[in-house]
């Protein structure tokens, strides 16, 4: 996801260098069109799902959480 903002990405809301909340990207809009992703440097509108209101001057760190499920197999003791 480097250099892009994607729908459903997770967001850290930082204020004065401290994480003050978390959010999830619900919608991404470029001009008047809803899109799934925009590249870095592209002006866009975002709708976030968060209990923490974003204020002017806040920094938003976007990241994607991936879950990897591994199956552990029992070794035989021969």
From TrEMBL:
Q: Which organism is it from?
A: Candidatus Berkelbacteria bacterium Gr01-1014_85
- Keyword set, alphabetical order: Initiation factor, Protein biosynthesis
Could you identify this protein by its name? Translation initiation factor IF-2
User: What GO molecular-function term can you cite, just one?
Assistant: translation initiation factor activity
- What highest taxon heads this organism's lineage? Bacteria
Kindly give the InterPro entries that the UniProt entry links to this protein: Transl_B-barrel_sf
């Amino acid at each position: 996801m480097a250099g892009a903002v994607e729908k459903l990405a997770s967001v850290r809301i930082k204020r004065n260098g401290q994480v003050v909340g978390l959010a999830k990207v619900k919608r991404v809009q470029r001009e008047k069109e809803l899109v799934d992703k925009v590249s870095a440097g592209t002006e866009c509108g975002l709708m976030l799902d968060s209990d923490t209101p974003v204020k002017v001057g806040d920094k938003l760190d976007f990241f994607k959480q991936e879950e990897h499920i591994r199956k552990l197999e029992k070794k035989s003791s021969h």
